[in-house]
Amino acid sequence: MKIAVTGKGGVGKTSFAATLARVFAETGRNVLAADADPDANLGLALGFPEDMVESIEPISKMRKMIEERTGTDKDNTFYVLNPKVNDIPDKYGKLYHGVRLLLLGTVDTAGGGCVCPENTILKRIISNLVLQRDDVVILDMEAGLEHLGRGTTSGMDQFIVVIEPGARSIQTYRNVKRLALELGVKQVRVVASKIRDEKDEQFILEKIPAEDFLGFIHYHPSIMEADRLGKSPYDCSPELVKEVKDIVQRMGGENL
User: Fold this and answer.
1) Is 164 helix (H, G, I), strand (E, B) or coil?
2) Side-chain half-sphere exposure of 242, counting CA atoms within 13 A
3) What's the farthest any 2 CA atoms get from each other in the chain?
4) Strand ordering across the sheet containing 213-218
5) DSSP H or E segment with residue 7
6) pTM of the entire predicted model
7) Over the stretch 99-144, which tens digit does the pLDDT of each residue have?
8) Nearest-10 Cα torsion for 224, 227, 232, 237
9) Rounded CA separation 140/158 (Å)
């Protein structure tokens, strides 16, 4: 499975992505979790030690490596569009708890359709992860929709949009679905997070088509406690792990 997890900021996107990665790793699968959020928190959510997370440099900031791989000149006028990237995940990723973490970073640009060496490298890495590797690949995307405009996620099998019970989250899901279809990603599915009661559940079920809906993640104090302790929710919230395992089964994944 090659999955891009997206959604508005603050909806529990990273907690879900991290727990999903740990659940797949529990089955013995090779799992690569790629953090493409500028506010990079996936490593801590996976349970990586803080010093290990801080030692990982984002790929998008490795200017010397990017220049070497793309052959760019100082003005970014000419560069290779198909640079070698197949060794990057193993060379620059860090493995812990059965999950290899790759910090992609983002490209600082005022335009959504950036064509530049950094963006070329990121797109090629994601393409390699999707087409050339047998790993389960989970991308924790930046909040919002800019990554869809850059097209860095066009090769993914599916998008999972994490939403909360509110009109703005529903609008985000609809916008992601529209843009993903334009990129050729036909499967856009929804996980509803921070669910408190039956009223929240009913709101989601009325707004999201049944074929797109994967399941609920209810509000669990243990998730907040994990964040306060700087630990992975996978290690602190058995309720969350159970709900994510149920979601994996609905995705057509492992019988967990």
Assistant:
1) coil
2) 5
3) 58
4) 94-96, 99-103, 31-36, 136-141, 2-7, 158-163, 187-195, 213-218
5) strand 2-7
6) 0.85
7) 999 998 775 543 444 557 777 778 888 877 877 777 889 989 876 5
8) -10
9) 13
